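Sequence in, structure out. Go.
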Amino acid sequence: MSTPGAGRVAVITLGGTIAMTSQDGNAVTPTLAAEDLVAAVPGLAETGIPLEVHNFRQLPGASLGFADLVALVKLIEGLDVDGVVVTQGTDTIEETAFVLDLLHRDERPVVVTGAMRNPSMAGADGPANLLAAVRVAAAGQSPGSGCVVVFGEEIHAARRVRKTHSSSPTAFGSYPGPIGFVAEDRVRFWSRPERWPALPADELDLAVRTGLVTLVLGDDGAVLKAAGGQVDGLVVAGFGVGHAPAACVEVLTELAGRLPVILASRTGSGPVLTGTYGFPGSESDLLGRGLISAGTLDPLKARILLHVLLMAGLDREVIRRRLAELGNA
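Output:
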């Protein structure tokens, strides 16, 4: 069965579990090429979707970096296709997809997928995920959706998707839920996030360094202080709606005086509030001391946005404005 409105799709592999095999009975490593992945998908040829394949990287997800993703965006921009599928390791999908969403500048859909079970395992999920991802990339209604993650036949917005389990095939989810799904070989969207203006990918400072510190019970600020001396910008994952222990307040005040410090919630969903609580270390106290609200972005997404904005050379006040615009979108 062919896919209605299907266009030409590029499949680009970065490595990861979906491309891993065992060598001589040892633990698996990324070895399969894009051609191998495509050839192993039952029913893919029958869709009639024209494909081209690109072997871009052969790395585990945890070893990908911003330089890889900037180069990937430039590759995508030069392709004469209607949609793109990127396969990679699941360890960093929730971060890499957001980088692509921020840097991808045209209307063609970019779909990221992978696998939780490598091809040698019973119930390997890579072929089904790749088939669904190709369908989404080729679907007529996908253009303008930016970058999305397709897993378990669900379509998730890049800015909301999270990996919620270390090994389950249903590891990916998003709050308040997926924006669409694939069923009976058809792609269905029931909502579409508003596209953000893409950031330029041409002149980015790849030497930028950012960090993420999660506040914990009994925190005295020592880790914050150490991290703050090594980075150009910092995300702080606070308690609840954006709270910090009183012992951390002075350290956070000092850090916010010299570099962008983003305040997110370590819960992973829901907003950082602005004026409900007023004690030292509360959200209103910290924002008043110069910290910048992440809005509804979880700590990992807030750190990605901060990093990309710093790579683009934006100063702290511009970053504050962009977080205000994007963090609550």
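Check: Residues 9-189 form a domain with the Rossmann fold fold (CATH 3.40.50.1170). The chain has a mean pLDDT of 90.
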